[in-house]
Amino acid sequence: MNSESDPQNLILLQKYIADTSSAWSRLSVLGVSLGVALAVTLGAAAAQEQAPGDGRQAPAQQATTQEEVQGAASEQEAAETEEAQESTPTAPATPQPKLGDVADGSRADHVHILDLRDETGSLIRLDDPVPQPFSPKQTCQECHDYDLISDGWHFNAADPQVGAGRRGEPWVLVDPISATQVPLSYRDWPGALNPEELGLSPFLFTETFGRHLAGAGVSEEESDEPLDIYLRWLVSGRAEANCLGCHDREAGHDQAEYDRQMRQQNFRWAAAATSAFTTVTGSAKAMPDNYDIYSGGPLDLSGAPPPSVEYDKSRFNRQGKVLFEVPRRGPEERCYFCHSSATISEAREERWQADQDVHMAAGLTCVDCHRNGLDHLIIRGYEWEAEERGDSSVAAFSCAGCHIGDQESATPGNGGMGAPYPAHRGLPVSHFETLACTACHSGPWPSETAQRVKLSRTHALGTHGVKKGDFVAPYVLSPVYVRDDDGKIAPHRLIWPAYWGFMQGEANESALPIEPAPLEDVRTAALAAVLADEPEGGPNVARIQAGSWPLFSEAQMKRILEDLAGRFPEMGTPVYVGGGKVFSLVGSGLSAEEDHPAARPYSWALAHDVRPAERSLGIRGCDDCHALGAPFSFGTVLAPVPFEFADGAAIRMTSLQGMNAVYPRVFALSFLFRPLVKYTIFVCCMIMLLVILFYALRSLEVVLHTGSSDGS
To answer: Does residue 256 have a pLDDT over 50?
Structure first.
């Protein structure tokens, strides 16, 4: 060991000890490392004392033989040769692909009978004294390139080297007590806040949204966090990429259990808990910061059970291996857990009454279109994705790529997976220049007012204990027809941001920045305002318990803003962003600023469910979109507000499409007169035809009369 590198080695070794070893082993290994360092230091000092400073040598050194001299010369020559080879530039070694990452051409799924490994890579056996949860990373990376896979689209949101792509579904921070709903994303999507702006560290983000996180990324990578958060990571473990969340086909797989484990901060146990052969109990959240998973102590004084795992012994074969049902193509049931939706309508349509996506009804699955390679960069399917990614092959999996294809290709490019070629007879070409395919074919049929919709990720659909009421926050609206990044109009889902914050400047000044207020303080102030005016069984308390927003009175609103001003006098003017407006205290009353950038809605495109051609917009004629009052152009999007005394903003689809409201109305009025114009044109054509026929007959008569006169 080089004495100059001893401090750095010790630091690395101590960090390794802190992350992986038990409490007792940390002390012992640290003692050994210190002993080794001390021995090296003393050895170096002794060597310096014995160095020939005055030309004298020790007796043992004087007895050097000729063979030793020759051996030393040979060693020196070999060292010089090795140094010369190292200085010669060589091409970097190409990493060898792993066993499971190279296809042999077979379309059959491979059988996965695997050794289970814990997060340190150690084999898991049934006679282990303290059973550890199996690690997806260590278990799967024996045959698969985990590092490459964990850079895929589901994991790389916080990677600044990855392009943001088209706006997608955000994470939504929801708190019914304070009427808060904030769209969040680590990606640079306009209108979505970064989680850290709301005080969500990677640890808190993982705990809050872990139910639908795929793991890896911010949930696995180390980051600069306070000591108390770092200690919690040691207890909870990191959330690795959850391979089973997408690939486990076993009937006993319970992804809802993943949610329960993440809420208990059982990050290292969560993936294993979803499998059919493990049972995880206890809570890392209830354990103290110095709890050690290997020694089992010290335990929390409250007596809460620590996290532990129990395996179904019958699932292990004689070699101690376990059979996993993990096909390469993830089954759609796994996709549905994170990507389901339920429209809330007055018709109150039951599940058995709803139609399936036309592609699913035809036998396709999610991964037929949303494909990926080993890198797990899932194809999202929008029209300009191939250009963004620099991969022309991606274009084949958009709507146009599959149904129309590349007409200039040397081989037929349309009809992918049996897709019919769209005729679009009689449809003006301008529609293809201004509308996305999904504008007519995707999402629920538009209504006069955008409908509320519940989504898996925003409303925790499919998890245990989920609130099933129609008015559960957050309030997401759909379909909303918005002009997309490529300039075409497409159906979107939309959410209005709502949160309490501080405006940096005087109220009512134009577009001043707003910093979100700490959520815990807002909750305290809001709950105090509600409980001060009504008993525990009051209507607002009932709304909160049902997962809905309370309806604040003007007095309660003022009380909350005054409370925040007293708690944070140096932060600026307290405000509430909601309903498309910014509310603040001005004198003894409330002021509402409209069109503030912070209050503008966030929207993202939807593509499912796809309706058949017989149910597409326009199937009944132009009036589906262009009649006066047609929802496509004149539908209203209402912003929800938690008030009794004020209404939220109401915007038209035309505003979201960036159009002047006058033009669509004038254009729609033209359709009222189009039948009359058509009849008028028809009558005029008939008159012209009769006139032409009349003069043609007269001309013929003249010709015949002239011919008979010449003959006579």
So the answer is: yes
